[in-house]
Specification:
- The complex is a heterodimer of chains A (191) and B (88).
- Helix content of chain A is 64%, strand content 0%.
- Chain A is mainly α.
- Chain A is elongated.
- The two termini of chain A are 34 Å apart.
- The relative contact order of chain A is 0.19.
- Chain B contains two helices and no strands.
- The model of chain B has no long low-confidence stretch (mean pLDDT 95).
- The radius of gyration of chain B is 15 Å and the shape is globular.
- The chains are: A mainly alpha (191), B mainly alpha (88).
Chain lengths: 191, 88
Amino acid sequence: MWVYEKILEYPIRVSGPNPRLAKDIITQYGGPDGELAASLRYLTQRYSMPIPQAKGVLTDIGTEELAHMEVVASLVYNLIKDASIDEIIRAGLDAYYADHDRALYFVNAAGAPWTATYIQSKGDPIADIHEDMAAEQKARATYEYLIQLSDDPGVTDALRFLREREVVHFQRFGETLNLLHEHMERRRVFY
Amino acid sequence: MDQRRQDLLRIMELEFTAIDLNLFLDTHPQDQRALADYNAVAQELMRARMTYESRYGPLLNYGLSPSADTWRWIEEPWPWEITFDRED
């Protein structure tokens, strides 16, 4: 069961229409290292985890990633909602506009739609948590590229917050990996 | 900044503290200090949420927050419609 809370995890500040920046940031909505992929990866991997800490971490980080998906969506929404057709064309967002108007859709920065092939659920807890740690580092790197591409200080502030959360999640997954190794040593299963 | 945004920022701060402690406790369930901090922030968050909800309507759906005389859940603005100023 999930419950919706009518509040963003982090306040957003947007200086004005900026379809060029929206076109880049949308990759954290529907791109390979984006928040949808992160959330679905963790929420589907949790079923085959052997220890309670891993089930908890994947449930809770998977849920926090949904909140991040909403923050990214809110940034994109506010960056394009008042953009003129002329601004959209000049920003190169016209191809997106042809299919989606100013609606939100799960694509990467180059317009490729989200695909389940972005994620893996291997059933092997060590393999899955390693994938999750790599995913957090890839997301951190993407946020750093987006911060370099941002010309809106308010948007940069939200991107910094999201980047920092990837670092914290990486830390928690690292601890989860150690707990899994301890569990397997107790059971004399080696990987 | 208007009162509503100030109240929202306070809830965001408290909830962020709760989220971060929650994740920490998932991998450190025996940490008594983190647990005490979590319970303290949970209390304060509940109070801040109740005050906000009495003014602006429910923050939670599906029975977790009451909606006194009218169904206020669908009232705008929704979260993505609330932006803050650079100075906030």
